[in-house]
Prior knowledge:
Layout: H1 19-27, H2 33-53, H3 57-73, H4 80-87, H5 90-98, E1 136-144, E2 155-159, E3 180-184, E4 190-196, E5 201-202, H6 208-215, E6 221-222, E7 225-231, E8 238-244, E9 263-264, E10 267-268, H7 271-277, E11 284-291, H8 295-312, E12 317-320, E13 323-326
Parallel strand pairs: 1-11, 8-9
Antiparallel strand pairs: 1-4, 2-3, 2-7, 5-6, 7-8, 10-11, 12-13
Amino acid sequence: MDPSKVSLPPMTDLTVDNxxxxxxxxxxxxxxxxxxxxxxxxxxxxxxxxxxxxxSTKEWMAAINFLTAVGQKCTPDRQEFILLSDILGLSLxxxxxxxxxxxxATEGSVxxxxxxxxxxxxxxxxxxxxxxxGEPCLVVCNLKDSDGKPIEGAKIDIWETDxxxxxxxxxxxxxxxxxxxxxxxDKDGQFWFNAIVPISYPIPVDGPVGxxxxxxxxxxxxxxxxxxxxxxxGYDHLITALYLRGDPYEKSDAVFGVKNxxxxxLELVDDATAQQYRVEPGTRLLKYDFVLVTDKEARxxxxxxxxKALADLGLKMKLIDGLxxxxxx
Length: 329
């Protein structure tokens, strides 16, 4: 931007004591009230962090180099920044704030770094995975609204690893998508498909996030799970996953994704179910009823919780399009 068109306050003799307020003053010329507020809080917290930890120049440079390495590790098929957000608990926190759920609704979980837009559309009853080493699993689900009515025509992204614990995009020689698909719920809100039993697997540790976990003496394992993402106009976007009960990492997920309501037991297909869905009796069976809330339900709950949280912090704020900005009126 042309400096002659920007009015900045004079700044001299900047010190530990006044650098924060001066940085905030410079950023306050931004015409976007929400952006101004975000950076006012970011600068305040970031500067306070530096003061509280007395961070050294060596540590600051290590952080710069770490974030640079995170960016360099990202590809169209792998998002190392999402992985970093996941292991810091930020992904789950942001989802919980933006997509709060009433008690009857399906809770959200983390997206993870390996969702792909390359998934192909698949009709009911087809195979999600073609891994011959995986244990077959029939997945039968219902999609309902908060009144228990079926939701037809929702777009449903589904993805899982293979029997080695890798997603398809982690293979450089893959010929096409596998272990993932896009489905639509039918007129009864149902969708079903053939998959393999999910297994525990380590998150990628060949990058900077893996080195960070090692430095923090944390493990890199995720419990066995299957990802689901639901989209339909008029309904709140849902990213979630189902986790297998009894997994050794059920209570220590490296990315904090597990919630009690999302933990499921696998059943066995009986003769009647086998005939209905054309699978072998004794096949593993995963059943679940997903419940979506409307955009309005989610928005009203989000605003209610935001107002309470801000009031508890003693902040005088107002909400514009559901997002807080200072109330200076």
